[in-house]
Automatic annotation (TrEMBL):
Signal peptide start and end residues: none
Reactions catalysed according to its record: 2,5-diamino-6-hydroxy-4-(5-phosphoribosylamino)-pyrimidine + H2O + H(+) = 5-amino-6-(5-phospho-D-ribosylamino)uracil + NH4(+); 5-amino-6-(5-phospho-D-ribitylamino)uracil + NADP(+) = 5-amino-6-(5-phospho-D-ribosylamino)uracil + NADPH + H(+)
Coiled-coil annotated spans: none
The family this protein is said to belong to: In the C-terminal section; belongs to the HTP reductase family.
Pathway of action: Cofactor biosynthesis; riboflavin biosynthesis; 5-amino-6-(D-ribitylamino)uracil from GTP: step 2/4; Cofactor biosynthesis; riboflavin biosynthesis; 5-amino-6-(D-ribitylamino)uracil from GTP: step 3/4
Pro residues composition-biased segments: 320-331
Any single Pfam family the record assigns to this protein: dCMP_cyt_deam_1
InterPro entries: APOBEC/CMP_deaminase_Zn-bd, CMP_dCMP_dom, Cytidine_deaminase-like, DHFR-like_dom_sf, Eubact_RibD, RibDG_C, Riboflavin_Biosynth_HTPR
Protein name as catalogued: Riboflavin biosynthesis protein RibD
Sequence ranges assigned to domain CMP/dCMP-type deaminase in this UniProt record: 4-126
Length: 432
């Protein structure tokens, strides 16, 4: 049974772990507090960056000889393996720690087994203290270990009637300065920020974490199937943070920009659910409708992106042909957008453990349809627009029984706005 001092130490260890958010990928965030035999705190530490010392090592260093006979309180089971640093279970034994209290078991095959090693050496080991809090702070890493893809937070800013832009497409700014500053904290905590080509075209967003001292910069990712939305001079191309543009296979890499080639979404898998784009191939384009060369779209050939009421799906449509203009020779082909699972797998392979999906509604719908949203952070402004795009388009949901049910974790007032944080409930756990 854990003592009150150990519970307080674990709360502190969770807070220490949170300081590592955004800096430790592909590693977890971990906090540790060492108590002496009387229950007094003698050392604290957290994992500050991948490749650096683990939380236990920092805390043991701070405690020195006072760790002997004491208790180590850790948010994650001490590791048992030699990676870039030595095994923490051994470090705890070497320091003479008599008791270890940890919150969450380490699920990685390499590192697991620390608790067993400690027990076998005669250390008193307890597991599960404040496990919910410790899970929550480490949710990105735990999700990525359990699912093999990064944890995804979909964030949006909407009016109280659920609009993310006005009918004329203008959307800056819906929420207050306080909410927007909070978004920069979210960006700094995530490894990558993702937007679709529609948002890129409409907003020319910057997507870096601004105004936070010492902030880790996320990788900025634009999902731009044809490589035509990210143009020279785009704000995501400045050097405030790294940028990756995801395009379809066969599209030429964008000059001077890290380009990721992805397959189209598997039409057979999610075809009826995925938002899609109707387009006719452009002159000089490839057979599949992708451009042969990025940045060559001329105004006449430019696709007009419009919301339609058709089946709740979003379609980008060609403008009606001008009188006298030639009829396209080839029939319009459905385009499916890029494969969300392939995108997440590629980001995971690059060490990304947490993604902040910042829109827009079409790409967010594709993530929801792909079952790839873990957490939703909605900023709601006390304003009404009455028209304009809704926060989410499609998502593969057509009837009330398919509603994606969420658990509200937090509701916070930010200036005049509300920030609601909710997680996706495990299937079958919610009835409304
Ligand atoms: N208030 C808010 O929080 C936000 C508001 N907005 C607003 O939303 C509007 C833009 O929304 P929207 O057009 O939906 O933009 P998105 O950013 O969702 O981009 C959608 C485009 O992404 C491309 N895409 C690539 N792969 C996929 C896929 N698998 N599924 C779906 N799309 C894919 C498609 O174009 P292609 O294949 O041609 O590349 C698609 O048309 C703007 O008015 C913007 O201001 C946007 C973000 C946040
Ligand atoms: N309009 C709107 C948001 N819009 C989001 O912010 C992006 C612009 O980011 P940046 O260019 O880095 O400042 C934009 O493309 C969209 O994803 N966010 C909000 O918190 N509140 C708002 O009212």
């Amino acid at each position: 049974m854990a003592t009150a001092a150990e519970a307080a130490a674990m709360r502190r260890a969770v807070a220490l772990a949170a300081r590592g958010l955004g800096f430790t990928s592909p590693n977890p965030v971990v906090g540790c507090v060492v108590l002496d035999a009387t229950g007094e705190t003698v050392g604290e530490g957290y994992h500050q960056r991948a490749g650096g010392p683990h939380a236990e090592v920092h805390a043991l260093r701070a405690a020195g000889e006072r760790a002997r006979g004491g208790t180590a309180v850790v948010t994650l089971e001490p590791c048992n393996h030699t990676g870039r640093t030595g095994p923490c279970a051994q470090a705890l034994l070497d320091a003479g720690i008599a008791r270890v209290v940890y919150a969450v078991a380490d699920p990685t095959p390499d590192a697991t087994g620390g608790a067993a090693t400690l027990r076998a050496a005669g250390v008193d080991v307890e597991h599960g203290l404040l496990a919910d809090e410790a899970e929550t702070v480490n949710t990105a890493w735990l999700t990525s270990v359990r699912t093999g893809r990064p944890h995804v937070t979909w964030k949006y800013a909407a009016t109280l009637d659920g609009r993310v832009a006005a009918a004329d497409g203008s959307s800056r700014w819906i929420t207050s300065a306080a909410s927007r500053a909070d978004v920069h904290r979210l960006r700094a905590e995530c490894d990558a920020v993702v937007v679709g080509s529609g948002t890129q075209r409409a907003d020319d967003p910057h997507l870096a974490a601004r105004g936070i001292e010492g902030a880790a910069q996320p990788l900025r990712v634009v999902v731009d199937t044809h490589g035509t939305a990210v143009r020279p001079g785009a704000r995501v191309l400045d050097d405030a943070a790294p940028t990756l543009v995801a395009v379809a296979e066969g599209v030429e890499p964008l000059p001077g920009v890290a380009t990721l080639h992805l397959p189209y979404a598997d039409q057979n898998a999610d075809a009826e659910h995925l938002p899609y784009v109707e387009r006719a191939p452009r002159a000089g384009g490839n057979d599949d409708g992708t451009s042969a060369r990025p940045g060559t779209e001329d105004d006449e050939d430019r696709l007009e992106h419009r919301f339609t009421a058709s089946g709740g799906a979003y379609r980008a449509q060609r403008p009606a042909p001008r009188p006298g203009s030639p009829t396209p020779q080839q029939p319009a082909q459905p385009a499916r957008g890029l494969d969300i699972h392939a995108l997440l797998a590629e980001l995971h392979a690059r060490g990304v453990r947490s993604v902040l999906l910042e829109g827009g509604p079409t790409l967010a719908g594709a993530f929801v349809a792909a079952g790839a949203v873990d957490r939703v952070v909605g900023y709601l402004a006390p304003a009404l627009l009455g028209a304009g795009p809704a926060a989410l388009t499609g998502g593969g949901i057509t009837t009330i029984t398919e509603a994606l049910r969420l658990d509200v974790r937090e509701c916070v007032a930010l200036g005049p706005d509300l920030r609601i944080t909710a997680t996706v409930a495990a299937p079958g756990t919610k009835e409304h």
